[in-house]
Amino acid sequence: MSPAPATATTPAPPPAAEPALRIRGIEKSFGDLAVLRGVDLDIPRGTVLALLGSNGAGKTTLVRILSTLITPDAGTALVDGHDLGSDPAAVRGALSLTGQFAAVDGVLTGRENLVLVARLRHLSRPRRVADELLERFSLTEAGRRPAATYSGGMRRRLDIAMSLVGDPPIIVLDEPTTGLDPTSRLETWRTISALAAAGTTVLLTTQHLEEAERLADSIAVLHGGRIIQHGTLEDLRRLLPPAEIEHVEKRPSLEDVFLTLVGEPTTQRTNEDLR
Q1: What is the dihedral of CA 185, 186, 187, 188, to 10 degrees?
Q2: Is 30 exposed, middle or buried (0-12, 13-18, 19+ CB in 10 A)?
Q3: Tens digit of pLDDT for each residue in 146-174?
Q4: Residue 270, pLDDT score
Q5: What is the CATH number of the domain that holds 228?
Q6: Domains identified in the chain, total number
Q7: Structural contact between residues 42 and 49, judged by C-beta atoms closer than 8 angstroms
Q8: Sign of CA dihedral 176, 181, 184, 185
Q9: How many CB atoms lie within 10 A of CB 115?
């Protein structure tokens, strides 16, 4: 008997890409104080999500949970496909946290800081890893100097570089420009933009709305322990009535004057640089 003729079949569509972070129903209380009341959030791979919220909204608590520093009372999270509850070691390998204040040892040189982290992560060729990151973050010349001699922006860049040792696919930046001067803040913004352009997923917590506007692909608002809005900047703008067009004279801000005097781009030009 002749075999039946082959019939053409339509290939099944590929499964939808899993988000880098998938958070469902995360709750956390401290005594009688309920900080997180059921947080749901997805962050696509290779994007920057800005998490906005007032002081005490629970941003840092959520970050500490995702970093396995504390455990949630309820809920689940997948970090690069790894379950937060059942596989915390894999979660720690996939996600790196940079806190509000640079975790840099000022006595060590920039290169020594990076070599130390590479050794703690049991990487082969830690010195090569350090040199590559120093070059990536434009710190090669400063690499032999003690980190205590670095400017605020340089220390923050070194701190972020330390977080990228081992190439984690996800980095969490918890209010990374806290306490930085305008020039250092712009340096940090450029660094974050470069990370996203290279494919790193970034969760950025911030209270600075301008920071979110410039850097984020999407924005989530945490309030009352829950995500009350999540979307692009344009999505959120559509929640308000259309703007009225008015002709006004815009005078340079003090920040524009300061940045011009020290040779940095002004606000308008910086917006273009960050895209």
Answers
A1: 50
A2: exposed
A3: 999 998 888 888 998 998 898 899 999 98
A4: 47
A5: 3.40.50.300
A6: 1
A7: no
A8: positive
A9: 20
